[in-house]
Amino acid sequence: MNNNIFKSLRHKNFRLFFIGQTVSMVGSWVQITALPWLVYRLTNSAMLLGLVGFLSQIFVLLFSPIAGAVADHYNKRKLLILTQTLLMLQAIILAALTISGKIQISHIIILVIFTGVVFAMDMPVRQAFLVEMVGKGDLMNAIALNSAIANASRLIGPAIAGILIAAVGEGYCFLINGVSFTGVIIVLYLMKNISLNPVDKDVPVIKKFFSGLEYVRNSKTISSILFLSAMTGLISAFPMVLMPVFVKDVFHLDASGLGIFMSAIGVGAILGTVKVAARKSAEGLERLIVHSAVGFGLGVAAFAVSKNIFFAVLFLILSGYFLISQTASSNTLIQLIIPDALRGRVMGFFTMAFMGFAPIGSLACGFLAHKISAPLTVVIGGVLSVIITLIAGKKIFAHKS
Questions:
Q1: CATH code reported for the domain at 11-192+205-398
Q2: Residue 275: how many CB atoms within 10 A of its CB?
Q3: Confidence check: pLDDT of 18 > 80
């Protein structure tokens, strides 16, 4: 294997970050998998599944751009220590309520709102922090390895969650997530000699936000990529939110089946990350972004109409592959284009685009599944994704910053 794939790990701070993130992200995916299962067990409602998904991410849509401006104004390492500590507190409270048997849907909604607000701050800061650990020369590799962490965790975490839910219940999934945050908090404290990008503290955060907005508006390549990312993010919520319905009502499986299906997406995601990491240059990333978006829509629709478990898993692998291929390519291309001084702000808009529109998708798919059915809802989402990509994709090829 080419050693250049891991070249950004030569930076000690990034090695620490890589280890801490690996532990933390596995725990996060354990909770992400267990939470909708708990909601569906308590309520048996596809609509409430959609509502919880909506509330968990709507604040990314509302706050990520301003959080990106904050990331360009303050020490990113200290901001990450704060956000990770708050997320750990949320997971421990959720675990205590669930293990004690006192958990109610109202508790879940309150804690999900809290998590959503904190996560809206965490994501842009984390993305903008990469360049401070590795420098611009190894940035593309660090982005790929950071994506690899998330996607490997997406494979391992759901499998662990499926086993734990069946054996001891959802509460211990949340407890594992809470403990896992200690890893990344410790390594953030251990980091030394962080290369801070110069910031102008005399410029208010709100003015920085508007300057970032103006930059995004004027860059037609970036604005086109962000639009397509937003549409894909919206549609990607459909199969994720409704997965417990497919597992229980379509394929008649238990929690172990949920782990298998979610892990299938993770397998595809890892393959998609490797595809992007293996690229030697940014040449042709525009084409990869558009082709991947089309492939994702087709994969999602094919999964929804599958009646055979083998083919369902296969199409989930393909969906995960194309989704992450598009996301990692978009992230890489944007970060190679933008100036360092605007990195936090632009990554705030990228976070808003890809993750912020997912809650709208969560609410929409929960409502549609309640009115029609989960499979038909996901088919509609997949077909819509393909149509939007074919229209919007032309703009990505037509413009260069």
A1: 1.20.1250.20
A2: 18
A3: yes
